[in-house]
Design brief:
mainly alpha; Tetracycline Repressor, domain 2
Length: 217
């Protein structure tokens, strides 16, 4: 008993969670909640429980359910843009940079399923929330400028044709990576495709091949 008392006295006090950590836990729980249940089915109570915070604290940080949804939607975009920043596109050749971007996009869609589900939810809502997020375009601008730089370098080197719009090109990238992941269950059922990681990785490589052919046309 005495030894137990000594160990109890020596046990470190639990660290208090800081505000930023709490915000991130709430955002992640919100991403999973809204992407699983949609906007109408999502419950703030479950978000608070899964984040390990009180509901009043959640409201203090973000506001009502719609505000939590808007913050989670923005976070979905922030996460993919942060991941793209790790690619070091500027240090790769133009062809390697395009391939790296396509492979990352497919991998992100696969590993972060809430991203596609959040986009599906927002499109079902008519895009009303994304239009109200004041800095949504600013979140995307980093990718646009980095992709513009890659395309310009490729054109200057004579490996890409000139005049390719980076936004329109990214729509191609996202489209080719989006469909296999967003429709994974129906594609497996209807066409008896394996739809495993190896299959999706092969789709990414072949999508990169197609896009590079488009850029060289």
């Amino acid at each position: 008993m005495r030894d137990q008392m000594k160990r109890a006295k020596k046990a470190p006090a639990p660290r208090r969670r800081d505000a930023e950590q709490s915000r991130q836990l709430i955002l992640q729980a919100a991403l999973e909640e809204f992407s699983t249940y949609g906007h109408s089915g999502a419950r703030v109570e479950r978000i608070a429980v899964n984040a390990g915070v009180s509901k009043p604290l959640l409201y203090d940080y973000f506001g009502d359910k719609d505000a939590v949804y808007a913050a989670a939607l923005k976070e979905a975009y922030v996460q993919i843009r942060q991941g793209e920043l790790q690619l070091d596109l500027d240090t790769l050749s133009p062809e390697e940079a395009i391939r790296a971007l396509v492979q990352f996009t497919m991998r992100h869609f696969r590993e972060k399923p809430w991203f596609i589900r959040m986009l599906n939810t927002e499109n079902l809502l008519g895009g009303t929330t994304i239009r109200e997020i004041s800095d949504a375009k600013g979140v995307q601008s980093v990718l646009v400028e980095r992709l513009r730089s890659v395309l310009t370098r490729g054109a200057n080197a004579g490996v890409f044709r000139a005049g390719v719009d980076p936004i329109e090109f990214y729509v191609f990238v996202a489209s080719l990576c989006y469909f296999p992941v967003s429709n994974i269950h129906t594609l497996r059922a209807v066409f008896d495709l394996p739809m495993d990681i190896a299959w999706l990785d092969r789709r990414a490589d072949e999508a990169a091949d197609m896009l590079l052919l488009y850029l060289r046309a």
